[in-house]
Design a protein that fits this description.
Blueprint (H helix, E strand, L loop, with lengths): L1 H69 L7 H70 L6 E6 L2 E6 L7
Antiparallel strand pairs: 1-2
Helix pairs in contact: 1-2
Length: 174
């Protein structure tokens, strides 16, 4: 009876280890999905911000040209250079925003990939743990099987140079 309970206990322990690994894997896969969503949101927000910056750049250049024209300044020399410098600075800001957006998307994707890897690793660890449980407890089951009174073992009864194999039930018959 204790052999059966021990075997059941070992089986439940192994099942628990595998289930825990599955739960961890599901958690990491969920986190990976969240990271992918964050990457998509960063991409959308960055694209929107770049578009807003481009429109602002266009308005700024138009405002500068209009202000110079209203003041009667010709668009040559220094005034033209100021407008060009402003456009260049605004374009640099746009490029920096685009770069930062790309970095944010890459970071979110890397985090997603890492979570997928962690989930796979959790599942592998669960199977290794269950296998370790089996291998560490198996010798005690094999050893206890031979000494259990409820499980017959084989013995040999020898009479007149003839051997007979019988189950060890306590009685021998010839």
């Amino acid at each position: 009876m204790s052999f059966g309970l021990s075997l059941l206990s070992m089986g439940m322990q192994m099942y628990g280890q595998v289930q825990q690994g599955k739960q961890q894997q599901q958690m990491f896969e969920y986190n990976a999905a969240v990271n992918r969503q964050q990457g998509e949101m960063i991409q959308q927000a960055g694209a929107l911000k770049v578009e807003q910056m481009r429109r602002s750049k266009s308005r700024m250049a138009s405002s500068q040209v209009a202000a110079y024209a209203k003041a009667g300044v010709r668009m040559t020399g220094s005034p033209l250079q100021v407008v060009a410098d402003t456009a260049t600075e605004l374009e640099m800001d746009i490029m920096i925003e685009d770069y930062n957006t790309r970095i944010g998307v890459i970071n979110a994707q890397n985090q997603s990939d890492l979570n997928i890897m962690r989930g796979s690793q959790a599942m592998s660890s669960a199977y290794i743990g269950a296998g370790t449980t089996l291998l560490s407890q198996l010798p005690s089951f094999v050893g206890s099987r031979g000494s259990s009174p409820n499980i017959p073992t084989t013995s040999t009864y020898k009479q007149s140079n003839v051997s007979y194999g019988y189950a060890n039930s306590g009685t021998y018959a010839v």
